[in-house]
Amino acid sequence: MMLVLTTVQEVCEWISDVKTNDYFIGFVPTMGALHQGHIALIEQSVKENHVTVCSIFVNPLQFNNKEDLAKYPRTLGNDLKLLEQAKCNMVFVPSVEEIYPDEVPEHYHFGALEKIMEGAFRPGHFNGVATVVKRLFNYIQPYKAYFGEKDFQQLAVIRKLVKNENLPIHIVACPTVREENGLAMSSRNARLSPEERTIASKVYHILVNAQQLFLLKSVNEIEQFVISEIEKEKKIRLEYFNIVNKKTLQKSDNADSPNGLIGCVAFWMGNVRLIDNIEFIK
What we know:
Elements: E1 3-5, H1 8-19, E2 25-30, H2 36-48, E3 51-56, H3 66-71, H4 76-85, E4 90-92, H5 96-99, H6 118-121, H7 125-140, E5 144-148, H8 152-164, E6 170-174, H9 194-213, H10 219-231, E7 236-245, E8 261-269, E9 272-280
Parallel strand pairs: 1-4, 2-3, 2-5, 3-4, 5-6
Antiparallel strand pairs: 7-8, 8-9
Helix pairs in contact: 7-8, 9-10
C-alpha cells in the first residue's frame, strides 16, 4: 500500500527505517499534475530500486511569474491514483511552510549554465530548482534520482549540483515522452486548448525536419531554418532556439563536436510557455 506523508519529520523517520534494511531508494521529484512522462520515471525507478519515492510540491522559488504559479495545474487526487498504479511506495506532499519554514538563505552558482537559455529568460529559476531539490535530497537520501530529458538544461544543473555538493546520488536521465502528435508531455499542456495542442506540436515536427537536414547543412543554417519555420506559425511566439554542446550547453557551430549537439527551444503557445529539444548526430 502506498504511503502519503506531509511532514519532513515523518519522511525522515520513514527513510531511516527503510535504510536499516540497506534498501536502495529511487526518487522522482515532481510538481504534480502528473502525466505519462512522470509515470515513466516512476516505472524506471521501480525496476531499479527496492523502494520508490515521489514528491509532489509546486515550488514557488522557481517561478518568475506569480500568475504562472497561480495557474499551475494541481490534480493531487488523480496524481495519487497514478502513483499507486505505478507501484510507488511513498509520496511526500508537503506544504510550502514545511519546505520553507524560515527565510531561504541558499544561493547556488552554476557558472555559464545559469546564464544561457532558461537561465537568461528566467533569472533565479535554477537557484530555486537547486534549493528545493537539495532539500528533498537531504530528506529522502536516494541512491538514484530520475529526471526527464525534456528539461535538458535543468538536468545539467542537477548534475552539477550533485557534483558541486559531492552528493552520493546517481542522476538518471529518462527520454522525453510525447503525445501522439509529437508534443512533449508537460503538465502545462493541460492549459492548452485542443487547437493549441495541435499547433504547438508543429514545433517538434520542425525539429525533426531540422535533424534530417543536419547532414546537409551547417549548424548556423539549421538554427536559421528552425527559427524561420517556427516564426511562420503566427500563433506561436518563439523565445529562443539554440544548438548547443550537449555537455557544456554552450552555443556551438561544430557539427562534429565529440560531446554531440542538442537543439533547445522555448516558445509561447498563447499564454503557456513550453520547452523541447532534439539531439543532432552526424
